[in-house]
Every structure is written in C-alpha cells, then in structure tokens.
Amino acid sequence: MPLPSAEHHHMVFLQGDVLQIPQFDLPAPLTYSQTVYNWTTAAQVPERIRDASIIALSAVRIDAHALSPEVSPHLKLIVMVATGYDCVDLEACRKRGVVVSNCPNSNIEAVSEHAIGMYFAARRKLLNMHMATRAGKWRQKGLLMLDYVDKDGTPPLTCQDEIAGIIGNGSVGEEQYLAFLVLLNLTVRLGKRIAMLASSLGMKVIVSDRKSSTTTDSSRVPFESVIKQSTVLFVAVPLLDSTRNFISTAEFESMSPHAVLVNVSRGGTVDEEALVKALREGKISGAATDVFKEEPAGPENSPLVAEDAKDLNIIATPHLAWLSQRTAVNYATKLKLAIDGWSRGQPVNVVA
Fold first, then answer.
1. Does the chain have fewer CB atoms within 10 Å around its N or its C terminus?
2. Rounded CA separation 337/348 (Å)
3. Could you please report the per-residue DSSP string of 1-21?
4. What is the model's pLDDT at position 151?
5. Looking at residue 332, what is its pLDDT?
6. β partners of residue 314
C-alpha cells in the first residue's frame, strides 16, 4: 500500500459496519487506496489513522493527540458520516488545517419516527406491559390496569390531549455562533418533522424559543412556557457548551407531573441524574432517550439504565434512532459528495 502523496490518498474507514462505502471519483491524476475496519475504539484510533490522508467515521472520539502531526502526519480530511461532530476536536483540526465535513439531514425521517415511537412506548408503558404479560402477571392478577396509571391514579393521555413541546435549540453564545448556524438547519428540520407527525396524531404543538432568549418570534413560545405547558417534550438540539445539561432540576421542577420527555438529540443535553431524580419523585411521568452522556451506555456508566432505575418509566435505545434503509443511502451519497468534492477543491458541508 503506497503512502499518501500529492497524487495519492489513503482512506481509512473506522466503522465500516455502519457504512455503505461507495466508489469514489477522484479527478486525474489522483488515485486512492482504502482500509476498512468493521469497528474502532478510541484506543485504536492513533494506530489506525497513522497512514491515512482521509478518514471517515460515525462516532468514535478523535482527540487532539490523534490529530497531532506525530500521530497522523498525512491527515487532510475527516468525514463524519453523521450529523453531529462533537466527537472530533475541531480546534485541533483548525490548527492543522484538517478539513472536517459532516453528512447533515440524512436521518431526519428515521429519527423523527423513532421519537414518536419512543413517545408511545413511554406514555403507554408498552415495554412494561409486554414484559408483565409474558411473565404471566395478567393471568395471575386478573387485572393489571392499576399498574399502568400515573402515581396519582390518572390513566395515560391520548394524543388529542397532549401538548407537544418541540425544543430545537438552546441558548447560544457568540463564541459558538458559527457552530450553531451549521447545526441549526438540522435541528429545525428535525423539529419540524416531529411537529408534523405529532400534529397529524392530534397533538397541539408548541415550538420553543431559545432558552433565555430576548427575541420576539411570533412562531415560537418562550422556553420556560414550553417547559411548563408541555405534556410531551421532544428534545432535538445540538450539543454545545450552552446546551450541556440545559434541561435539569429547574426544568423538571416546572414540568407537568404527566409530562413525558423524549430525547433524540445528543447525550449530555439532559442532566441524567436530575432526570432519574425527577422520575423517582414523580415530578414527571416518563422519559425516553436514544442518547447518553457516555456511550456506549450501560448500568456502570449511566444512571438511566442503572439497576436502581429499572423500575422507573424509562425507555432506552442504543443511539440507533437513525437506523433505516433511507438513512444508509443518504449517508453513502453524502460521504461520496464530501470526498469527491474535497478532492476537486470544492468541499461540502464543512464544519471546520
């Protein structure tokens, strides 16, 4: 395998199991070779990208050490085959002149449908009902209805009685403004599709303004009002410094006791400890999340799936809301556009 040069690129795909890798059309005289790893951990990254000029990945951490010239001397382009790119140290990339592109809006349909599915699972406590029925509890007790009402004895709401709050962005400081603009299109589109699906089910939809916003956008409702009014709250925000734990104790204290929280954004946007506490104390009715502060998540590193939370109304899925045939095709198409475009001096979807 030849090393990268002015006329040759070596591409390394760090997570081939989740990618459909297309054929690339680099302009003459450029040529390329490639190495595909089924999956890569953060510890394996430095060794595997040493001879790469282009790397593509979906989620593994690429830190400043991996991005140093000593570790990855040939690196010129990183393609995030995902919308989010918080796993890549963008500042280190900027210092070296490494271009970072992502594949935005590829999973809008899948993620929005997953969000609605998780809402139903949490609101109707479907998983608990399934497990109880399989375990023979229905036959043993004769009536299970009282096991699936809220703590105050209230039966679940139907869609016609839901107020769906859509939170599409948080408070954004000036230092993060460019990153926010890059991600805004995704959050708006995802929020709009969730809103469309919720509305078609009969829910009243309200869309949140930015947290602590002083603007007067007539199409949006103040963040604090959305928190108080919503009976189901969909979170679809990018992970920025300003959105870390931006839904925490104060927000849970303000929510309806019948509220269900659905998070399909990024782990770290919702305070996991505060969420568990709110559920345990009956501050809200249920929660569903596809994302976690630490991933992969398990009982050892996430309070949401810890042993002492197993009796709480929490639906947890392993960051697979994006999984669909349409998403796979979209990712492959945008991966090809990113690499082909960059090789022609016309990079697309650049985030750094």
1. N
2. 7
3. -PPPBTTEEEEEETTGGG---
4. 84
5. 97
6. 287
Question: How is residue 346 annotated by DSSP?
Answer: -
Query: To the nearest 5 percent, what fractions of the chain are helix, strand and coil?
Result: 35, 15, 45
Closest CA to 108 of 223, 177, 185, 34: 185
* Cα–Cα distance measured from residue 26 to residue 144, given in angstroms and rounded to the nearest whole number: 62
- Residues 343, 30: contact at Cβ < 8 Å? yes
List the one residue out of 306, 312, 278 whose CA is nearest residue 292. 306
Task: Kindly state the helix (H) or strand (E) to which residue 131 belongs, with its residue range.
Answer: helix 126-134
Q: Write out residues in the chain with pLDDT < 70, as ranges.
A: 169-187, 212-216
Residues contacting residue 349 through CB under 8 Å, at least 6 positions apart: 101, 102, 103, 104, 334, 337, 338
- pTM value? 0.90
Q: What is the DSSP letter of 159?
A: G
Write down the pLDDT at residue 187: 59
pLDDT recorded at residue 240: 80
Q: Which domains does the chain have, with CATH numbers?
A: 8-106+326-343 (3.40.50.720), 108-316 (3.40.50.720)
Sign of the Cα pseudo-torsion (322, 328, 329, 334, in order): positive
